[in-house]
Amino acid sequence: MTTILITGGHSGIGLAAVRALAAEKVDLVLAGRSPDRMRAVADELRAGHGVSATTLAVDTSSLASVRSAAGQVDRKLDAVLLNAGGRFDGDVTFSADGYETTFATNCLGHFLLVELLLPRLSDHGRVVWTASGTHDPDSMDGRLVGKAVEPDAVALSRAATLSAGKRYSTSKLCTVMYAYEMDRRLRRHGSKVSSIAYDPGSVPETGLLRGLPGPARRLATSAAMKWVSRRIGVTTSDTAFSGASLAALAAGPDYAGVTGKYFQAQENNLSAVRSARVSYDEQRAAKLWDDSKRLVHLRPDEEPAQLR
Ligand SMILES: NC(=O)c1ccc[n+]([C@@H]2O[C@H](COP(=O)([O-])OP(=O)(O)OC[C@H]3O[C@@H](n4cnc5c(N)ncnc54)[C@H](OP(=O)(O)O)[C@@H]3O)[C@@H](O)[C@H]2O)c1
């Protein structure tokens, strides 16, 4: 039996992914911070597909919450899907640990979670880091949202002056670089675990834009805007295809053993594509990884040997 843990599996792309996985008889651990909504989805998956579906409380913006959640996972996992994430419009806010909310939620929490869960992953386990086409400052996706800046963990953890769009796109640049850096560390140690990055494409109808003012959100989710987005070169998709693609990357036989790559869903096509030029910078990625270790206060006894 295959078991997969996903963050943010009760809504949007994550929900479409867990429905597709449950239909393939995959057991699921739904990790997130909305217990009632997670329980409802777990009930639906159990009733509809006869799989095991459990919930795990985790707020990825809180290091204490991530440590507590990871400590409760006592079963073998075949994949970990780092899917939760948000764009945080309005005034800049900081997490309980004092880190800017976007970077804390999208990056540091998942970074710590994957360090702590690696010992639970099966020998050929898969880690899928949900990034975004916005990570690439040279792409239309990146230009529209706000070009990503230097992927410097310490600066980003304190970022008080960047726009919400830039905080988001830069968090996703860091996500791609985490995926690649994790892959390099795993390969150095002879591990068979894989680590890939995934862009689900622009799917404005999920909860991602809930922080935008009403009129801006309505415009972003309108059919006209989708048409314009396609015309100007935005990477567009829909919830069902992006969720099914995440499910395929997590458990599909076609992607077994595939690692160190960046996949993109676009118009019913899932393929490995090039990510931003800067994302291939190995020195920057190693620094991002090591700085992140310090920011999450990773103890030597928490760090798996394969990620050193
Ligand atoms: N939609 C797009 O156009 C698009 C494009 C590229 C990439 N993505 C990425 O795809 C992923 C899924 O997003 P979505 O579009 O499906 O949006 P969504 O429906 O808003 O889903 C985001 C999920 O993340 C969870 N989450 C947010 N903050 C969290 C926290 N602090 N702790 C735990 N969980 C948290 C949310 O839980 P709550 O319900 O509890 O808030 C929700 O389940 C995200 O990483 C997003 O950045 C989306």
From TrEMBL:
It holds the Pfam family adh_short. SUPFAM superfamilies: NAD(P)-binding Rossmann-fold domains. The keyword Oxidoreductase applies. InterPro entries: NAD(P)-bd_dom_sf (IPR036291), SDR_fam (IPR002347). Keywords: Oxidoreductase. Belongs to the short-chain dehydrogenases/reductases (SDR) family. This is SDR family NAD(P)-dependent oxidoreductase. It comes from Paractinoplanes ovalisporus.
